[in-house]
Structure formats: C-alpha cells, structure tokens
Amino acid sequence: MFDHAQSSHFHATEHTPDHRSMKTTVALAPGDGIGPEITEAVCRILEAAKAPVAFAPITLGEQSYLAGTNSGIDSAAWETIRAHRVLLKGPITTPQGRGYKSVNVTLRKALGLFANVRPCQSYAPWVNTHHPDMDLIIVRENEEDTYAGIEHQQTQEVTQCLKLISRPGTERLIRYGFELAKAQGRKKVHCFTKDNIMKLTDGLFHRVFDEVAKDYPEIEADHLIIDIGTALLADQPERFDLIIAPNLYGDIISDVAAQISGSVGLGGSANLGCDFAMFEAVHGSAPDIAGKDIANPSGLLFASLDMLRYLGHGVIAANIQRAWQQTLADGWHTADLCMNAQADKALGTQAFADAIINRLNAGPSSSIANAWVWPDPASIALKPSEPVEKTLLGVDVFIEFDDLGRDPDQLGQRIEAITEDLSLDLKLITNRGVKVYPDGFPETTCTDHWRCRFRRADDQAVTHRQILDVLARFEAAGLDFIKTEHLYAFGGQPQFSMGQGE
Ligand code: NAI
Fold first, then answer.
1. Mean pLDDT per 10-residue segment, the chain (502 residues)
2. Residue nearest atom 22 of ligand 1, based on CA coordinates
3. Which pTM value belongs to this model?
4. 403: which DSSP letter?
5. What count of other Cβ atoms lies within 10 Å of the Cβ of residue 460?
6. What's the distance, Cα to Cα, between the start and end of the chain in Å?
7. Is the CB of 113 under 6 A from ligand 1?
8. Are 138 and 246 in contact (CB under 8 A)?
9. pLDDT at 495
10. Phi and psi dihedrals of 26, rounded to 5?
C-alpha cells in the first residue's frame, strides 16, 4: 500500500493539517451543473462519518470564465491548490465557444497528474446490470494525445488537431499501470490502441507497452485494437482486469464501463502525479438535470473515498462504502440506477445522502475492499534510453489550393515546373492522406488541402537550406504554404507515414 506519510513527495505536513483538529485541508471545487448539489451531498456524508478533512473552497469553471478568466482557473484558485496539493473537484462545464480551455485538461496537465485511474465494478445484485461479474480498472493517460489541445484551421475547408504521444509520458503511465496491477493482484493487463492506422503515435504506445510488459512476466499482457476492444468491453467486461489506454480512448471507454456497470453516475476517478492528486467523478456536469436534486452523488463519493484512502483514512472510507452498499441493499437509490424490482424506492440527491448517513457504523459485516493498494506515482522510474541518430530526409509542404478545378495532375505539373531545377524532387501529392499525384484516381474527392512531398531522387539526407529553396519557389509562384512537416529517419529508419508507391 502506498504509505502516504512515508513518501518523500507527500509528507503529511505538506497537506496543511489543522493542528487543533488534526484535520487535513484539501482544496474543494464544487464545479458546475450538478456539481454543487453532489458536492454538498458528499461533504455531508464525509462530515457525518467524521472524516478528518477540512475544505478550502475554490471557484473553478463557469463562474471563473464569466469573471473573465479564459482558463477557468484564477490565480487565487491556483494558490489554494498549490498550497494543499490535493483537490476534490466536482464536474466542470467546458463552454463550447472558442477561447475557453477545459479546466479539467488544464489541471491534469499543469499539475503533472499523469495517471487517471478509474476503477469500475458491478454492484449486483443491488444495481441492475447485465454484467454482475465486472470488476476492472481503467488507467488512462492524462496529459498527451489529442488532449494537448493543439488545433488549427489551415484552409477554408480543413481543420487539424495534433496528436502528441511521447515515449517518457507513455512509459511512465504504462509502468504505473503494471505496478498498479501488481499491487492489486490483477492477473491481466490489456492495452487498447489504434496502431493499425496510427502506426507512429499509437504504434509507440503499443511498443512501449510490449517493452514494459517484459518486466512483469507474472502478469498476462495483451493488446487489442480500440474498436474491437471497446466492443468486447461493452459486451463482456468480465474479460478485463486492467486496461491501459491513451487519453482519448481511455476517456471514452471509462464512460462505457461506468454506464454498463449500472450508471455513468457511479464512476469515480483519481488523477495522480508525483506532487499533486485530484479526485473527481468520471461523469460531467449534466446540465440537463442540474438543480433538480436527482443526480447520483456516488461517482464523486467514490472519488472522495479514494481521496480518504490516499490521505491514510482507509477505515473511514470503508465505513462510508459499507453504508452506501447497505443503502442500496435496502433498495434505496437515485433515479439513474435501475434496481431489481425496487423502482419505487428512488430518492433525490440529498435524501440519498441522508440514507447513507443513517447507515454509517451499521453496515453489513461482509468485507469491502478497504486497502488503497496503489503505488506511489513518484516511485515510477523510467529506463534510460540513448538518443539515436536523426537524419533529415525531406519535407512535406502543405498548401491551400483551390484553382485549376482542383485537378491533381495540373497541380502536380505546375509544382514540378517551378521546382524542376532544384535538388529536391516532388515525390507525390496527397489529399487527406490519399495519393492523388502521380497516378491518382479521378474518383477521389479532393479538398483545398494538399500535401506535397519533396525528397532527393536518391532518398539521401537533405539540408534545411534545400527545404527553404523549395519554399521560396512556392512563395514566388503564389502558392499558399500553410505548414511544413520535416521527414526524419531515427536510427536509420524513416519515421513518417509513407505514401503509396514510395
Ligand atoms: P455528462 O456526463 O455531464 O452527462 C451525460 C448524461 O449522463 C446526461 O444524460 C446526464 O444527465 C447523465 N448523468 C451524468 N452524471 C450523472 C449523475 N451523477 N447522476 C445521474 N445522471 C448523470 O456529459 P455531457 O452532457 O456530455 O457533458 C456536460 C458537460 O460536462 C460538458 O460541458 C462537458 O465538457 C463537461 N464534462 C466535464 C467533465 C469533468 O469535469 N471531469 C467530464 C465530462 C464532461
């Protein structure tokens, strides 16, 4: 078990205990939508259970955006989070408009919360589910992938989102996943990616998974393509013990897993880094039911129980969990849960919290997972890797072009004409990744976004100067180059997607 007090990064005093009451103060953000009502319910339960925690309230999200902070987190909120290092957070609405950053994503990245751990189990027979035997943990990468949020509109017709997957970010997360599996006695770890399509980004994630798995021979390791993986998870979740996934896939499959366990309102989530921890529900701010006193507080409650265990109060967490379970065993539930013949016993959010409070210290004696057997994120060490030789092999010049009837042959001939005396050759043109020149199909639909690949005829190394010469010709010809991507080999191996015929 991760001994909080022993960790070099998590000395108890860093969590600002109130010395009169010996309570640990944590930052508390009620959030938006249903956030305030489920937070109130959770805080009342923690208080009734005498959890030794005090809260330093902060405002994140909508109120902060309305006050003019585009990030949704003002400096006072940052200060409080940094002072207490543990945050219990209600769900936050991310406004759809441009210019607003997701508070959730910003917090996870700014605080280095690299692992998002989402346990998901069935509560049968009390909660109706087709999957009474499901009991799995999803470990979601939390800082990278398309969630880097680097997006651009490049042409009239085309937008782009960068998907960034790094080796150290991936290795740290995957090692944490295997350490968690080991600590929890899990037998099988799956990795979900789409590396049949994204061979470099998802390919790296899968490769690092295979490398790290070798260090844990006692744990069965397997990889599934995300589409069939999600289908199997939705149909037979009991096949899975622990799943490690990049950010976007992990986000999606954890909602799927929470929903099929009975309700998305049941999922709790721990965001863990070396210096900070943030606990929240899996679900969002549910504006459709906000203010109606019908939201299920269980997801945030489970997150708060993980927070208590993290702070070393596992016995109190177990007491609350027993009371929650007894409440369901007695047939009481929130409206989102479909119960076995107990539909008449639906309660509102606060009444459900009262029902749990009434059952504190009087739950069933059956043993409930009490131990917080999670590894210390700061204990994860990466294997040192030597840099390999990097060679520049060419350039992809992306242009916006909406002339000549978007005829790829005419465009290709024009570019060849303006660059024919240069030392780099036009190798091919693609449109949305499909080769259209030379020898494209007339049936291929073309947008105004073209990738023109230049390399030396003998495929040998090129210089930055040669690339600048190509760009100068584009400029002189009035061709709007909207971005360039350099083509590199690492350790002698080309590391860029290849066009057909290359
Ligand atoms: P959502 O998870 O808020 O709601 C999806 C559906 O589940 C809705 O029908 C809702 O009523 C229901 N639901 C969610 N939580 C529930 C609960 N505790 N009890 C009963 N029913 C519940 O997802 P949605 O509608 O896509 O997102 C709403 C907002 O939340 C968006 O602004 C989104 O960006 C944000 N969001 C925030 C997250 C966070 O703070 N970590 C996570 C996911 C979304």
1. 35 44 91 97 97 96 87 93 97 80 89 95 88 95 92 96 97 98 96 96 98 98 98 97 98 93 90 97 94 96 96 92 92 81 80 97 57 86 93 98 96 97 97 95 95 97 98 98 97 86 54
2. 265
3. 0.90
4. -
5. 10
6. 53
7. no
8. no
9. 96
10. -125, 155
Contact 473, 425 (CB under 8 A): no
Ligand 1 near 264 CB (within 6 A): yes
Exposed/middle/buried for residue 291 (C-beta within 10 Å: 0-12, 13-18, 19+): exposed
Across the beta sheet with 390-400, the strand order is 434-437, 425-431, 449-455, 390-400, 480-490, 493-494
Query: In the 3-class helix/strand/coil scheme, how is 200-242 assigned residue by residue?
Result: CHHHHHHHHHHHHHCCCCCCEEEEEEHHHHHHHHHHCHHHCCE
> Residue 65 has what pLDDT?
87
Q: Identity (one letter) of the amino acid at 308?
A: L
Residue 342: the pLDDT is 58
Cβ–ligand 1 distance for 144 under 6 Å, the answer no
Q: What is the rounded distance in angstroms from the CA atom of residue 261 to the CA atom of residue 87? A: 26
DSSP 3-state of 89: strand
CB of 327 shorter than 6 A to ligand 1 = no
Q: Which atom of ligand 1 is nearest to the CA of 296?
A: 19
Mutational pocket test of ligand 1: of 255, 285, 347, the residue with most ligand atoms within 8 Å of the beta carbon: 285
Whether 91 lines ligand 1, by a CB cut-off of 6 Å, is yes
Query: Whose structure tokens read 């073209």?
Result: 450
The reported pLDDT for the residue numbered 1 is 34
What pLDDT was estimated at residue 347?
Answer: 94
Ligand 1 centroid distance, CA of 64 (Å): 19
Residue nearest to atom 6 of ligand 1 (CA): 286
Q: Set out the domains of the chain in order of their start, with CATH numbers.
A: 1-116+283-367 (3.40.718.10), 390-494 (3.30.70.1570)
